[in-house]
Specification:
With 179 residues, this protein is mostly beta strands. The protein has no helices and 13 strands.
């Protein structure tokens, strides 16, 4: 593990090895970068290219934060070696309820920026998560359709029950599938 830092971030690089035919070979490296507030701003995996004896880009996630140091966006990209560019695979955006750390929603987008899913949260008076509802985006109708839901029950601040429901398109109903 190598640790380096600048005036704006700290970076950790971990290298991984694979044992092939009884011999340990360099396999990959994993880089994490954090901002001065401790928020992860980069996670990147590079694979080892034995022919060039160097690490080559593979994939990465870049994280953005708001002025309150709340995570607001993740962009996941894969390396396009033929064109020597990062190509976005998906993006995830998070919004919050006012100045709290309670998530209001998380929207996922595909490589072209089209929405794919939406997760909406509700909370009780103690700011404990009551529900998390996931909707899939239907491009044909330009609407979100429920796909699953988690409902939490608390005694005081202790989680006592988490009911998970899945939507059945055939019956147009939510069914509990685990607790």
């Amino acid at each position: 593990i190598t640790v380096s830092s600048t005036s704006t971030y700290k970076q950790h690089t971990s290298r991984y090895f694979a044992k092939v035919g009884g011999v340990w070979n360099t396999a990959s490296e994993y880089i994490t970068r954090t901002n001065l507030n401790g928020g992860t701003t980069l996670e990147q995996t590079n694979t080892y290219d034995a022919s060039s004896s160097s690490y080559v880009n593979s994939n990465k996630s870049v994280y953005d934060y708001d002025a309150n140091n709340r995570f607001i966006k993740r962009t996941f990209s894969n390396w396009d070696a033929a064109n020597s560019v990062w190509k976005v695979s998906f993006t995830q955006k998070t919004t919050y309820l006012g100045n709290t750390n309670n998530k209001d929603s998380v929207i996922n987008y595909d490589a072209n920026g089209a929405p794919t899913s939406l997760n909406v949260f509700t909370y009780n008076g103690q700011n404990l998560e009551l529900t998390s509802t996931i909707y899939s985006y239907d491009a044909a109708t330009s609407t979100y359709k429920i796909s699953s839901k988690v409902e939490n029950t608390y005694t005081g601040s202790d989680l006592t029950l988490a009911e998970r429901h899945i939507f059945d398109v055939a019956t147009n109903a939510l069914y509990m599938y685990s607790t």
